[in-house]
Amino acid sequence: MLVYPSGLDVSSSTLRFLAAHLRERRQALLTLAHLRNGHPYAQLGAGFGVGTTTAYRYITEAVDLLAELAPTLAEAVRTASMKAFVLLDGTLLPIDRIAVDRPFYSGKHKKHGMNVQVIADPFGRLLWASPALPGAVHDVRAAREHGIVEALAQAGVPCWADKGYQGAGGTVRVPCRGRWEMLSTSQQAVNRSHAKIRALVEQAVATLKSWRLLRKLRCSTTRITRLVQAVLCLHLASSE
Predict the structure, then answer these.
(1) Domain ranges of the chain
(2) Which residues 6+ apart lie within 8 Å of 184 measured at CB?
C-alpha cells in the first residue's frame, strides 16, 4: 500500500482536547482522521505505521471515551432553556445495507440509513444529536422515543420543526397543514415565516455531516450511536 501525507480540516484545539484524554497524541490524530475523513482502518494503519487491528483498537477506545463525554438530552435541554427557542429536525445517516433490511430503509429518503434527531439553537448551531434509530422510524416517533418532546415541554422551550412532526404536541410548532393553494393568506404567511426560521437547522445537520465518516457508514449499526456521540463531543469541545 502506498502512503502519502494528507491534510485534516480540524482545529489544533480539537486535537489537544482529544489528546488530553488519551495516552498519546498519535492515537488522537488517528481517531480524528477516521472520523473527519472516513478513512478505513487498514488505510489509517498504513499511514500511521500500525497494524489494522491496532488502528481499530485505538479508534474504538477513543470513540467510546468521547461518547461518554457527550452531553445527555437533559444537559442539552438545560442549555436550550437559555435560548429563545430551538430547532428540531431529523437526518438520515446512510448505511451499507441490502434491500432485505427493511427496518433500516427510509421511504422518505429512498435509501437505507439511521435516523438521528438534531437540536440546534436559533442560529443553527448544533446543540445535541440523538442516539441512532433505524431509518424506517419517522421523525415524530423518534422524537417521542428519545423523550425530546417531553423534555422541551417540561423546560418550556419553544421548538420549531417541519411537517414531519405533526401531532408531536408539547412546545413543538409545525407549519399549518394542507395544500398551499388551500391555505388562507394568513396561513401562507405563517408557513413562510416558519420555513425561514426552521431552515437554519440545516446548518446543524451540515455540521454533523462535515465529519465524513457519517456520510456513508459501513460499521455495525450498534456502533453508530457511539460515533454520533463522539462527533458531537468533538464539535462542542472545538466550539468552546
Answers:
(1) 1-69+223-240, 73-209
(2) none
Residue 99 and residue 46: Cα distance in Å, rounded? 33
| Cα-based distances in Å from 126 to 10, 189, 190, 195, 235 | 16, 27, 25, 18, 8
Residues 6+ apart with CB under 8 A from 44: 30, 33, 34, 55, 59
> pLDDT of the chain along its 240 residues, tens only?
666 667 889 989 999 999 999 978 999 999 999 999 999 999 999 999 999 999 999 999 999 999 999 999 999 999 999 999 999 999 999 998 665 567 888 888 888 999 999 999 999 999 999 999 999 999 999 999 999 999 999 999 999 999 999 999 999 999 878 788 778 888 889 888 999 999 999 999 999 999 999 998 988 899 999 999 999 999 999 887
pTM, whole model, 2 decimals?
Answer: 0.92
